[in-house]
């Protein structure tokens, strides 16, 4: 909710081909009609040449996407060149050549992406990050995460997943064995302000990533983040993978559900190994400022009232909060159990795994209990305001059935909300007090 104050992703669907090229062609065709035959064919050949020249997608598209991003206020970092390629290659090289994987992590400057990239690097895998550093929430936090990855030996390329030329280049330079695709427009309420950003990143962006993966040789296995929000209006608990997911309550949920269907297509047609992970409310150090546990902490410390949502008839709103380290272990296990893609050169050679797992914690906690824990950890009493939950996308209750992930990924969450929030609060106080002293008062504005 607070996050809506910030401008959003370069949301609009990108027009790869500027209008004036089309207008150009139309004018040419119009003039043609009054000319004799020979001149017609000369003109036709010229027009064809012009059209091919102007509309040829590569390598111009890389420049055009840069200028589109610049015009939308996202700084465009140039990419390419021998030094850049060397950096990409070295970041993506596994330490242990025999068993090490080479993983492209999209959304690496994000909350989950940073933790997953760091964990994979720590155990010896080669890791390359990709993120567009959009301003949905404070980009300074994303840059701080990138600095941390930099120190761990992970290079995060600045670019959009919709930049097909960039993705092609990355797969040309590195034969990635896995893609962990976490880049997305997250958050439920922001869709009211900027629906296009959800389509841009979660639908078009996912297709761009799957297109690149399918065309790569060797094809990587893909692990990507869906969401518990696909369970939508379901009231049967706990939520199991086989339950219906055709009643989303938000555009965010609808784009994640669409993503699951799109993933199935790429698995079916191209033999891509694809694992979808339905995360349940992930929290922890380096978390997302648009999530309740995060801005409750900020508001409690500032003495600002916190809104506690209630369902109809004062029903409690609860979430299956899942600690980041548990999610990371689930992601890494999904990489290790992914199974191979079978295609090559865009052709399928056999069936490949298509899987979906819940990654939750199996113990929902009410929002008022969340606030009580924060009060106790911060040693500050919250000013509480009970508010009827608006019908703008949030569901009342989430609770994961993790039997499947337990069985197949040996996924076992071990951190309860109390001890997880303790680690979050410690990080929060440290991060904002040190960024306050480093950057003056700027560090305080998290949105
Ligand atoms: N955190 C949760 O509770 C939660 C719950 C369910 C699902 N998920 C999913 O998990 C994934 C990671 O979430 P998170 O909490 O780390 O969010 P996040 O916003 O911190 O991370 C996403 C990152 O992707 C980047 N990004 C967005 N659009 C992009 C684009 N078009 N090109 C390149 N980069 C782009 C953003 O800059 C951001 O750094 C997302 O797919 C999210 O939908 C998260
Ligand atoms: C949990 O999911 C498994 C399938 O993975 C299913 O067999 C089981 O019935 C579900 N349990 C509940 C309580 O819904």
Automatic annotation (TrEMBL):
Major site of localization recorded for this protein: Golgi
Q: Which GO terms describe its cellular component?
A: Golgi cisterna membrane
Q: The organism sits in which domain of life?
A: Eukaryota
InterPro entries associated with the record:
Epimerase_deHydtase
The cellular location(s) given in this protein's UniProt record come to:
Golgi apparatus, Golgi stack membrane
The keyword Zinc-finger is assigned to this record: no
Give the Enzyme Commission number. Answer: 5.1.3.6
In Swiss-Prot or TrEMBL terms, this protein is called UDP-glucuronate 4-epimerase
GO terms, molecular function: UDP-glucuronate 4-epimerase activity
Task: Report the catalytic activity.
Answer: UDP-alpha-D-glucuronate = UDP-alpha-D-galacturonate
The family database entries (PANTHER family) matched by this protein are listed as: EPIMERASE-RELATED
Q: Does the keyword Isomerase apply?
A: yes
Q: Which family does it belong to?
A: Belongs to the NAD(P)-dependent epimerase/dehydratase family.
Origin organism of this chain?
Zingiber officinale (Ginger)
Could you list this entry's UniProt keywords, alphabetically sorted: Isomerase, Membrane, NAD, Transmembrane, Transmembrane helix
According to the entry, every stretch annotated as the NAD-dependent epimerase/dehydratase domain falls at 103-339
């Amino acid at each position: 909710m607070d996050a809506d104050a910030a401008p959003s992703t370069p949301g609009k669907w990108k027009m790869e081909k500027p209008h004036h090229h089309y207008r150009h062609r139309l004018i040419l065709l119009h003039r043609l009609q009054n000319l004799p035959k020979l001149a017609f064919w000369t003109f036709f050949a010229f027009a064809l040449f012009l059209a091919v020249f102007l509309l040829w997608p590569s390598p111009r598209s890389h420049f055009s996407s840069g200028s589109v991003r610049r015009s939308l206020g996202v700084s465009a970092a140039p990419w390419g060149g021998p030094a850049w390629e060397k950096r990409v290659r070295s970041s993506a090289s596994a330490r242990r050549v025999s068993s090490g994987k080479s993983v492209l992590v999209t959304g690496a400057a994000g909350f989950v992406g940073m933790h997953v990239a760091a964990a994979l690097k720590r155990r010896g895998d080669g890791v390359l990050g990709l993120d567009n550093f959009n301003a949905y929430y404070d980009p300074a936090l994303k840059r701080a995460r990138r600095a941390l990855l930099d120190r761990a030996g992970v290079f995060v390329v600045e670019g959009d997943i919709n930049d097909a030329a960039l993705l092609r280049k990355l797969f040309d330079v590195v034969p990635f064995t896995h893609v962990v695709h976490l880049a997305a427009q997250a958050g439920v309420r922001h869709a009211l302000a900027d629906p296009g950003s959800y389509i841009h990143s979660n639908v078009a962006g996912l297709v761009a990533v799957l297109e690149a993966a399918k065309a790569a040789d060797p094809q990587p296995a893909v692990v990507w983040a869906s969401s518990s929000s696909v369970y939508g209006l379901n009231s049967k608990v706990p939520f199991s993978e086989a339950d219906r997911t055709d009643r989303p309550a938000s555009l965010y949920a609808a784009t994640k559900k669409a993503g699951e269907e799109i993933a199935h297509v790429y698995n079916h047609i191209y033999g891509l190994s694809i694992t979808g992970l339905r995360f349940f409310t992930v929290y922890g150090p380096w978390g997302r400022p648009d999530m309740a546990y995060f801005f409750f902490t900020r508001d409690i410390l500032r003495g600002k009232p916190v809104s506690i949502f209630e369902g109809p008839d004062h029903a409690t709103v609860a979430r299956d909060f899942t600690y980041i380290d548990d999610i990371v272990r689930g992601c890494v296990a999904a990489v290790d159990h992914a199974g191979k893609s079978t295609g090559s050169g865009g052709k399928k050679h056999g069936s490949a795994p298509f899987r979906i797992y819940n990654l939750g914690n199996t113990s929902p906690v009410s929002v008022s209990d969340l606030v009580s824990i924060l009060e106790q950890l911060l040693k500050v009493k919250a000013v509480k305001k009970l508010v009827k939950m608006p019908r703008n996308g949030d569901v009342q209750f989430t609770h994961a059935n993790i039997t499947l992930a337990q069985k197949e990924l040996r996924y076992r969450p071990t951190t309860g909300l109390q001890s997880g929030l303790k680690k979050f609060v410690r990080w929060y106080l440290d991060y904002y007090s040190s960024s306050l002293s480093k950057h003056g008062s700027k560090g305080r504005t998290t949105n």
